[in-house]
Design goal:
135 residues; mainly beta; 2 domains; five-stranded antiparallel β-sheet; five-stranded mixed barrel; globular
Length: 135
């Protein structure tokens, strides 16, 4: 490759909206926290150490009877409200600015539960309805 010698029409994305292929045998619900697994396929958020939080699903996609990549889900990155964990893993206002962890596809927790959960994102706010997480 060589350096440019003329103008280049460089494609761009806004960096907040994605279409990801689903893993085999999964269903992702609209509004849920979804992740990419170790193979790069979309899966619902769950307790696991190998997931990478991707965003909020913009639609419901059912690939329960399909092969990996047979369906895609539209997702969005941003700051979204998810359910707060309970008891010792409940997130409080004192945790704003810290990372939180994926408990399931709608719930985040304060701790990694001894390194058994993946990072969901950064806690931006906490209110009576849940936790605002920037993914």
């Amino acid at each position: 490759m060589t350096a440019l010698t003329r103008d280049r029409n460089t494609p761009r994305r806004d960096g907040v909206q994605f279409n990801d292929p689903l893993a085999a045998g999964v269903k992702i619900f609209a509004g849920s926290l979804y992740c990419l697994n170790a193979s790069g396929y979309a899966v619902p958020g769950s307790t696991s150490t190998t997931l990478k939080a991707r965003g909020r699903a913009e639609e419901t996609v059912d690939n329960t009877s399909g092969a990996a990549g047979a369906a895609t889900v539209e997702g969005r990155r941003g700051c979204f409200q998810f359910a707060n964990s309970t008891t010792t893993d409940e997130i409080t206002r004192a945790d704003i600015g810290n990372e939180c962890y994926i408990a399931d596809d709608q719930t985040v927790a304060k701790t990694s539960a001894t390194d058994t959960r993946s990072v969901a994102g950064v806690i931006r706010d906490v209110d009576s309805d849940g936790v605002w997480v920037e993914i």
